[in-house]
Specification:
This protein is an alpha+beta fold. The protein contains 27 helices and 14 strands. Strand 3 and strand 4 form a beta hairpin. Helix 1 packs across helix 2, helix 1 packs across helix 5 and helix 14 runs antiparallel to helix 15. About 4% of the residues have low confidence.
């Protein structure tokens, strides 16, 4: 390949449109590249070919450097008469040269950059000098210099790709290299790469995003003399990048603010009021009294009547859709159910507002004042201490309502609507059907046991059995579970239905018997298992905590329910209230993750809950296999 070193007039250079291999814009802004060239000069010659325009050359490699030089010319920062170093190539080699320069170039490893910056500073260069030389901002230099504080062992782990840049930045939160190595050594292989876990171990102070800080306010903390430190790697408005040094001061301020609420509750006549910073569920050692229903105001009554009328209308529309053989558009069905959930939440809120504790109840009960997972005030009323239960029971004889310890008396709505109970139990039934259809041995044993029970049993229980309808009665599961056709159980049952339907093709009366007599025992047992499975019944209209025949059969089959069903927006999450979503995520994942759902809109909360529950194998109690 012919090439020749030449000096070029930057005013007679243009970027080749035909031979430039790089089409995607670089992440380094031109002004920063221009500053770098102005500071250290042009380190690499431009690759050029002759232009068709007399006296001009086209740049085939180094187009951004040329643009930066033209920017310096426009700003008057390019020395008058200074030429540009170039290498002249034949036009036939132009594209190959352009591709080779861009492909073969290897960027400096960030770890080497960090150390290079530190060396330049030690030589007397200013941060601004280094920034200009490398074509970056001063903030970037400061942040990379901070990474120079990382222990050599961790820097080597980063070079060996055992740590990410984010993880290395987390270790750099402290100057104490011994502490860095200690944290690294104490964490397991996964957590030592997790920036959030690392920061929690490195920096024991809480962030400004902590629930207690939300409650008292960062300004109040600083006004009380509390100090903060900032993570140079975090954005200016990132509360997780602000660390509060004095944890004890935060606790004192939060307790003081909670005590103000406690004082007002004590003035209302409660027997006792406790304050806590914990978020743990209220201990089961407490008994409970519940507020008595109060009369609705005329305005509230009118609103409830209006909402209940809308609720009845929606339920009627949904029932019509569910009764139709060919369902309406799935989106329409979901939208109606979403509206129903929202209406029911509004009705519950109004009804719950019309409740009040009596003076007699307050004389034996108390409150706990605390914060929820997001730092919002949470007051738990009507608690009975163990030592006060005897007094509460005595008052039960004299004062109506006070003695109803641990038993709610107010109108409540179930966690799962009747429609959702039907949908979930229909899915559960289909799962048992699919499992039974694939287990001829158990199917034969169950059939024989049920027939024997009917023949030799007496009374009602001779017909109980395992939820089978021996007369081949089949429940229309899909009518109660629109999500069934897409489920694993639904697809398995559909596959079997198609398989046996293709095999059994009776042409005349008695054709089924002729076909059956021609089959071996194994084939007949497999068909028997499927036909028997389709008779399994288990749809419920109300949730029950007791084991039933369906659970017994599921136990015989050793079904692992999470292998068949999981909680998604379609199967469960979009059919319950947002409070239920928060409750489930707090129980299964963490209170902190649940807290983020509180302020989301319902649709966003559903998506977030689905993502949080993915892979946890969580089941609502209806879907769990209960034991006798």
């Amino acid at each position: 390949m012919k090439q020749k070193a030449i000096q070029l007039d930057p005013r007679k250079l243009v970027i080749s449109e035909q031979y430039q291999a790089r089409k995607t814009a670089s992440q380094t802004p031109l002004p920063q590249l221009a500053d770098s060239i102005a500071t250290v000069g042009l380190l690499h010659a431009l690759a050029v070919v002759k232009s068709k325009k007399r006296g001009f050359h086209e740049v085939v490699a180094g187009g951004r450097r040329l643009q930066a030089i033209h920017l310096l010319l426009d700003d008057g920062r390019w020395p008058e008469g200074q030429s540009v170093a170039g290498t002249l190539y034949e036009e036939e080699d132009a594209l190959l040269v352009s591709i080779t320069e861009n492909v073969q170039r290897e960027q400096m490893h960030p770890a080497d950059e960090f150390e290079a910056f530190a060396e330049l500073i030690e030589q007397g260069k200013t941060i601004e000098d280094v920034a200009a030389a490398f074509g970056v901002t001063a903030t970037v230099v400061r942040r990379r210099l901070q990474l120079g504080r990382v222990a050599p062992a961790l820097m080597q782990a980063y070079r060996d790709n055992e740590l990410s840049l984010d993880a290395l930045m987390a270790y750099a939160m402290t100057d104490n290299q011994e502490r860095q190595v200690q944290v690294y050594s104490n964490l397991d292989t996964w957590d030592r790469k997790n920036p959030r876990v690392i920061r929690g171990m490195i920096e024991e102070a809480m962030t400004a995003n902590h629930r207690l800080v939300h409650f008292i306010g960062l300004d109040a903390y600083q006004a009380a003399g509390g100090g903060v430190t900032r993570d140079l790697f975090a954005d200016e408005d990132d509360l997780n990048g602000i660390y509060l040094i004095d944890r004890a001061l935060v606790d004192r301020l939060a307790l003081s603010k909670l005590q103000e609420t406690a004082a007002s509750l004590a003035a209302q006549g409660w027997a006792w009021v406790d304050v806590t910073l914990d978020t743990e569920p209220i201990s089961s050692r407490y008994g409970r009294v519940y507020p008595e229903p109060a009369d609705l105001t005329p305005e509230q009554q009118a609103r409830v009547t209006q909402l209940e009328s809308q609720e009845k209308s929606l339920m009627h529309e949904i029932a019509i859709l569910e009764d139709e053989e060919e369902k309406a558009d799935e989106d329409e069905w979901r939208a109606l159910n979403q509206q129903l959930d929202e209406l029911q939440e509004q009705i519950s809120e109004l009804e719950n507002q019309c409740e009040a504790y009596t003076d007699s109840q307050k004389k034996v009960a108390g409150c706990i004042v605390r914060l929820d997972y997001q730092g919002v005030l949470d007051i738990v009323e009507g608690l009975i201490r163990p030592e006060d239960r005897a007094q509460a029971q005595e008052q039960q004889q004299d004062v109506e309502g006070v003695g109803r310890v641990s038993l709610p008396t107010v109108k409540t709505r179930p966690t799962h609507s009747e429609r959702l109970v039907r949908q979930l139990t229909a899915n559960k039934t289909a799962i048992v059907q699919a499992a039974l259809a694939n287990n001829p041995n158990v199917a034969l044993a169950v059939l024989v046991a049920q027939l024997a029970r009917r023949h030799y049993g007496a009374g009602y229980y001779s017909h109980a059995g395992f939820g089978l309808g021996i007369s081949i009665n089949c429940e229309p599961l899909a009518a109660d579970a629109p999500d069934l056709p897409e489920s694993r159980a639904g697809q398995e049952l559909a596959r079997m239905e198609q398989h046996w339907g293709d095999l059994i093709t009776p042409g005349n009366e008695g054709g089924e018997l002729t076909w059956a007599l021609a089959q071996d025992t194994e084939t007949l047992l497999e068909l028997l298992a499927y036909l028997l499975a389709t008779t399994v019944q288990g749809i419920q209209h109300q949730e029950s905590s007791k084991a039933n025949a369906l659970d017994q059969l599921a136990g015989l089959l050793s079904i692992k329910m999470p292998d068949w069903w999981s909680a998604t927006g379609e199967t469960y999450l979009s059919h319950v209230s947002k409070d239920r979503l928060v409750e489930v995520v707090a129980e299964v994942v963490s209170p902190e993750q649940a807290a983020s759902l509180v302020r989301m809109k319902k649709k966003e909360a559903i998506d977030a809950a689905e993502k949080a529950l993915e892979g946890t194998n969580w089941l609502p109690s209806i879907m769990a296999i209960k034991q006798n």
